[in-house]
Amino acid sequence: MAVGEIFLAAFVQLLLERLTPQEILGYFGSLGGAGKKLQKWRETLSAVAAVLSDAEEKQLTSKAVDLWLNDLKHLAYDLDDLLNTFSNEMLEREQLKLHQTGTSKVRGFFTKVPHKVKFNFNMNSEIDEIANRLQDIFDRKEKLGLKYIEQTSTSTSSSKRTPSSPVLDGSVVGRDEDAGKIVELLSRNPDPSSPTNYQVVAIVGMGGLGKTTLAGRVFNDVVAMKQFSLKIWVSVSDNFDLQTVTRAIFREVTSRPCDMDEFSRLQHNLSKEIDGKKFLIVLDDVWSTCDYDLWRSLQAPLRGGAKGSKIMVTTRDEKVAILMGAPAGDVYHLKTLSEEDCLQVFEQHVSNDRPPNFELLKEKIVTNCNGLPLAAKTLGGVLRCEETGKWEEILNDKLWSMSDRSKILPVLRLSYHYLPSPLKRCFAYCSILPNDYEFGKTQLILLWMAEGFLEQSQQTEGTKGMEDIGDEYFGELLSRSLFQTSGKNSSCYVMHDLVGDLARWAAADTFCRLEDKLHGRCSPNTRHLSYISAKFDGEKRFETFSEAKGLRTFLPLPVSGGYENYLTRYATSDLLPQLKYLRVLSFSGYKLTEVPNSVGKLRHLRYLDLSHTLITCLPESTCMLYNLQTLILENCSKLKTLPSNMSNLSNLRHLNNSNMPSLEEMPPKVSRFTHLRTLPNFVVGKGSASGIGEIQSLHLRGTLSVGRLENVIDVGDAKTAQIMNKEGLEILQLEWSGTSEKELEVLCGLEPHKKLKELTIKGYNGFEFSKWIGHPSFSDMKSVKLENCKNCRFLPPLGQLPFLKNLQIQGLVNVESVGAEFYGECSLPFPVLEDLTFQDMQNWKEWLPCKRDEEIRVFPCMEKLSILGCPKLKDWLPKSMDSLSELYIAACEELVVSIANYKHLRGLFICGCKVVDRSGVKFELLEHMWLASISEFRLEIDGFIRGLPKLQNLRITGCEELTCLWENEDRWLQPRISNIIGGNISDSPSHFIQELRALKELVLTGCSNLISFPEVGWPPCLENVKMESCNSLTYFVRYQVPPSIRRIEIAKCQNLKLLVKDAWELEGCLEWLEIKECASLTSLSGKGGRLPRTLKFVRISDCERLESIIKTFHEGTCLDALTIERCANLKSLPEGLCHLSALRMLWVEECGSLVSFPSGGLPSSLICLSICSCAQLEALPRGYVDNLSSLQILLLRCWGGLASILEEGFPPNLIDLEIGPLSECGLHHLGRLTSLETFSIFCVDPDVVSFPPKEVLLPKSLIKLDIAGFPNLKRLSSSFQSLTSLESLSIMYCPKLASIIPEQEDHLPLSLTQLRIREGCPLLTKKYQPGKGRLWPKQIAHIPYVYVGGCDDEAEAEADRRA
């Protein structure tokens, strides 16, 4: 594979500089002539380096030269490892000298007599091997006829013309017409004949054409997207993983992490979240790895969305669009850009300088770009970093016309070719990143630094830090459009997938991603490895590591959004000691509880990431990692102490210990970290060795939080810390966890520099704040937080800070008044403040206006005001805040809120105050309003309602005065309402409520006066109604549900008897209906009747008096899911169930009076069927096996009709089966279920002593197996070993089972990643309980997750881990 000279020029130059005679002879003169050998190396390597430019040119046409370069590359790696071993030995000997008079553990490590002799022998052996390989490289150079070629410098030093502010993301060029057509496709009315409620729209085109950019433009079109209530964007990429994509959709829909292991439960919950809502889901960059079965599974929970929902797919393959069901008319083939548009894209990304012959070069530019936006963008990035005089040479380079099997775009290959050599190393390293992976700049720079890519050569001018060099390199790659800003997160970056292909092409066999090596192993040449960490990573995952002895990078990447992963102990105890050349090691996101002591033997290690783990301490051996530059302990919530000899890590530059609440104090002598730049959390200890004065000499940057300041006894120590001189700090937090004397003096001594941007003070117990807080000289201060400063009676003059935007004051319980001292003495207090929060101010009584000048308008830019938990505050709030868009008031029982002062509100949330007063102002922008537990309203109801033209979401909790709006006419008491509200009622209540013409959602909670809703006069746009604890409600409506309503949720309305009182056939557009915990409900309709045809989801639970749902279903009903739970009096299901052709899920649980299914049986469309704890249900309908060929999930638990299963067997395409009780003969049907992945069985014949019985073969496709209720089971049979895909095993209520190891075996399947031994297994519990007996025997030590205990205990343990 032709890969250019990659990074060899820079790599070899650094090796040459390390092979200086002074260094070698000074350090290793005692190695029996090693110095002379190394000097010979330098001479030979210099001769080789001189011909690299010629080799680079010839490798494109010569396979022999290409192989020569590849061999040289790997020799360079091994030579580098050898030189690092030399350096490590010297570091260790220097440390030994420092500890010769001590008794430390570090000294003990070096005092083994054979160590030096063994080291010398090993080094001489390796030196001889390297010498032979280097001589072979030299000899082949001569045979290949490689010559020295003079090269112009490609230095990235400051003397090079580098753009200062590149425009990386200009407007989308040339796609207006395309965007309009896509919007038109997305806005089309749904096809009434379509079997689904969504339609697929596909954008098809080759890579680099701008499919993602076009989709992103449409996705962010505010006007076009208004039609969708849910907008979801998921990057799919080349490795289509069903669970990963489903979890990504779930996270986008719910805005919360997805921690569900069971895929069926994940799909069920996603279905509930998305049903009834009109959605747009963008599946970006789908490849042919998505087959039809995967697509069917992915779209299953999406079928319940509202009519008109859309799925937009971008793909290179039209077959993918067809597979996903996109009609021919909805497949949009994206074409290349015109020459004019292509040139415009190019000019967005090139500098303003132009060569004199630019007009003549235009044709060559557009020809080389070939109509591809990515090519134009990349070419612009290449030329902007070159002198204009070289443009013509680059545009005529032979790389444009040269082809190979890599299929890399010529412009990308050229872009790489013209990178300076140091940048080639950095760029090639990015091949470890998965497609569409979002990475941070700092993260990548620290990885580059650990790999040695940022070390300054002797030729480099200046004394820049490695991080500064990395920042320049990153900016250069960004300016060349090889990196681009993420569209989701502006602080992160991504690479286009074609650029990722370029990086992998450049990296060749030195880099490996496990996802790319599914059918192979890492080679001996693999140096850098990454993989996407899974929930459970077992031993089988790491089989590919066996040959990669020279591995430098071990980097799991948690891309699924969570840090809840488990790792096999094999990785830490067996694999790790073999990887002696590691420079980068990460266990981030794994629930490790300890770090192996062997980590101290990884002497080359420079980057160690243990963030988001559960470790409680670091082994003392980590103090021997003398090369360590970066140690990441972020979110190690259980870590209490750091090693006492940690100051030995003299090369440490970044110690990220943020969010470590258990850390008790810093290790001694932190001041020895002379290179340290990052230390976000310094916990002051009680002794002087870990006192605050230790940070005096540290040149820290970014964030610093100083905790346990009560341990500062001497005020002089605070001044010694010299916080004022740390000008690299942007964020400072000062925190006290207890009381101490002289806190004010300590606070004064910790005054920071004037350019600080954010300040937090927590737990301060002084009676007043230091005068520097709020001083106007802090002109860059943008955010201040004062928290739990309980003794302060007055606030500091924060109004004087000229650029303060965010202010949070919380827990200052002694403050009674806020006034002039808060505003300060400036002419305009808080000139740019946007967000102000007061919280938990228990004794705050008054907020006084700024009276110094009546013309002053305080808070002119305020957008959000929150007052929470201030029970004594009353009377006055600031007025005339014309910019205020959000107002939050909660638990302020004495406060009178005059909302008339804030007429530009968009969101109003008031929960628990004395009075709400409006006084006739219209709120023409208000979209969301939540009113709860308000003692008194002073509103003119007519004007109030008419003054809310844009209100979309209304929530009312326990405000009886407002719920009178919906009292039915025969209970309307006009005098009573007039007296309460203070207005004139000239019409029925519906006259007022229908004025809320934009209202989409109405939520009523605890409104006990509400009996029912009116039949007419509903808001015309109302779609969702939610009601809870409205105990006077007897029915929702009398005749018909209003046609605009799509979703109804009713809970805990104890007197609700019917949904609709007097209608035979329900009409309308209702799609979602959920009723739960309504004890009086007997039926949905008083006349029996039928449900609306549009209904898709029905769930009724915990309604003990429910006798029937409805009499019959329409044949054309769109019902997708029907769930009935814990309705003890339900005797039958509606007739016509068999005709529900769209029904995918039927779930019936704990309905003890249900006897049989309706005539006609079950619909063939079912995918999920669950019948649980229905004791009187006799059997499934005859012929169900043949009829339910689409069934994938079958749950049959605790009911008498299971005998019928044995007669017909199981539906053939099951993926998930949960069943019990079941006789032994019933197990024989399992062998035919070749797709079964999850099998749960309980309550089997008591005679079974071995599972599975010898005559029974479980499907080899099984991934998850749960066994429960085997009273006489004594062993697992040897056929367990045939379950080579098994990942999860759970055993419960098997009292006689003494071992989980199958017969004639010594271990469980290596594929197993989860083992749960639950209650009712006393012998297993005794044998495997952690901390008792043998702790994790060898047979199960490889399993990442082992749990022994009850189900409830596991849930509690999981919660504790997260806490």
Automatic annotation (TrEMBL):
The keyword Acyltransferase does not apply. One of its GO terms (molecular function) is ADP binding. Residues 692-811 form the R13L1/DRL21-like LRR repeat region domain. Gene3D superfamilies: 1.20.5.4130, Helical domain of apoptotic protease-activating factors, P-loop containing nucleotide triphosphate hydrolases, Ribonuclease Inhibitor, Winged helix-like DNA-binding domain superfamily/Winged helix DNA-binding domain. It comes from Rosa chinensis (China rose). Keywords: ATP-binding, Hydrolase, Leucine-rich repeat, Nucleotide-binding, Plant defense, Repeat. The keyword Heme does not apply. Coiled coil: none annotated. Residues 178-352 form the NB-ARC domain. Residues 432-503 form the Disease resistance protein winged helix domain. GO terms for biological process: defense response; response to other organism. InterPro entries: Apaf_helical (IPR042197), Leu-rich_rpt (IPR001611), LRR_dom_sf (IPR032675), LRR_R13L1-DRL21 (IPR056789), NB-ARC (IPR002182), P-loop_NTPase (IPR027417), Rx_N (IPR041118), WH-like_DNA-bd_sf (IPR036388). This is Putative P-loop containing nucleoside triphosphate hydrolase, leucine-rich repeat domain, L. It comes from the Eukaryota. Residues 10-99 form the Disease resistance N-terminal domain. PANTHER family: DISEASE RESISTANCE RPP13-LIKE PROTEIN 1 (PTHR36766:SF51), PLANT BROAD-SPECTRUM MILDEW RESISTANCE PROTEIN RPW8 (PTHR36766). Residues 152-165 have a biased composition (Low complexity). Residues 152-173 are annotated as: Disordered.
